[in-house]
Hints:
Oligomer: single chain
Number of helices: 1
Order of helices and strands: HEEEEEEE
Amino acid sequence: MTGTPRLLPVTDDVDTGGFFEAAARGELALRRCNGCDAVLHVPRAYCRACGSWEGRWEPVTPTGTVYSWSVVEHAVHPAFPAPYTVLLVELDDLPGTRLVGHLPGRPELRAGAPVIAWFEDVDGTVVPQWRLARS
């Protein structure tokens, strides 16, 4: 850590607050439509599939696979020293549903590598992160 405060997400937003409430409990959760059960990711108030405005936050298994990644070589903010790797993780429970995360440094990665979520407390805000799962 560089001593520079980390950038924190807005946790009380009407569309995304449930994601961070679940993270504070140590759960990974996604929004689903009450009308047709579609996954509403990126979270939104209404369902694009059926038009319903009724949804819920539902826990999902916090495992996935590396779909893609990019190594950041030049620091864009002092709280995130380079190098670090930005991940796109496809969830095991919901193929086609992907979340973004990061790993420090330049880890050896391959498409399909298994990852597992963990929950980091950053100044009182719990943020889901990813780490490579042991094979």
